[in-house]
Design goal:
Layout: H1 3-15, H2 19-36, E1 44-45, H3 47-54, H4 58-70, E2 74-77, E3 81-84, H5 89-113, H6 119-131, H7 139-157, H8 160-169, H9 172-178, H10 184-203, H11 207-234
Helix pairs in contact: 2-4, 2-9, 5-7, 5-8, 5-10, 5-11, 6-7, 6-10, 7-8, 7-10, 10-11
């Protein structure tokens, strides 16, 4: 698709009243770009380039940027535009204190509800899907399966409000920063090992062990990044 086609599609989106769908699509594309490392922490998102690449209007892109800012993924800076957020050490600690409380509780509650309905089989299935990444570690696909694993635990709790809170604090920008510290393969293998431990505790109905496993999973990656950030600040 050439530039003229992209501009024509953008005009069609606006004229046919599909701007809301367009904004959603652009926001999701940019969010995945941050998660996958196509946009690095601290990188400026050039509006002109994105408009041409995605074939959208500037107004739709501005609204997508506002959504990403509300999600904590970018900063909107006057005269600079949108910049991918780079978390400070304090922001990482604060975010993971919240995630420990929310996702640790979700793991506890999932352990208590694991034998209700199809909960047990669904958790077994999502863990099994993740294992394929041991043989063929493709980060883009792993990111989807990783998110599915965490969402399945929250789904088992039966609490949609808890799901909304956890989603808000599950920041893609953190994973993007982590990938600058350790390799993609290491991120994947460590996460898969820890998913197995979390799932075993939930499947055993052990709420305390499920909380402890989730806590260890969350803070292991956070501590790796904090150590690297603190070392860089000391230089």
């Amino acid at each position: 698709m050439n530039l003229a086609d992209n501009r024509a599609n953008a005009a069609v989106d606006e004229s046919t009243g599909r701007s809301g769908e367009t904004v959603e699509r652009v926001a999701n594309d940019l969010k995945m770009g941050i998660l996958e490392g196509r946009y690095a922490p601290g990188q400026r998102l050039i509006s002109r380039d994105i408009v041409e690449q995605l074939g959208v209007s500037r107004s739709s892109l501005r609204e997508a940027f506002r959504r990403l800012e509300a999600d904590g993924l970018v900063h909107l800076i006057p005269n600079r535009g949108a910049v991918v957020r780079r978390l400070s050490p304090d922001e990482i600690r604060h975010m993971y204190q919240i995630r420990e409380a929310l996702e640790g509780y979700a793991a506890q509650l999932a352990a208590q509800r694991i034998d209700e309905g199809a909960n047990r089989q669904r958790l077994i299935d999502v863990v099994a899907r993740g294992r394929k990444h041991r043989e063929r570690p493709v980060f883009q696909q792993f990111a989807i399966d990783n998110q599915d694993f965490h969402r399945e635990i929250v789904r088992i709790t039966g609490n949609p409000l808890l799901a909304d809170l956890i989603e808000k604090h599950h920041q893609s920008v953190f994973i993007s920063q982590l990938r600058q510290v350790i390799s993609e393969e290491e991120v994947i293998y460590q996460a898969l090992d820890e998913h197995e431990v979390i799932a075993d505790a939930i499947l055993a109905g052990d709420a305390d062990a499920a909380y402890a496993a989730m806590k260890k999973h969350l803070w292991r990656s956070a501590d790796q990044l904090l150590e690297r950030l603190n070392n860089s600040l000391d230089r």
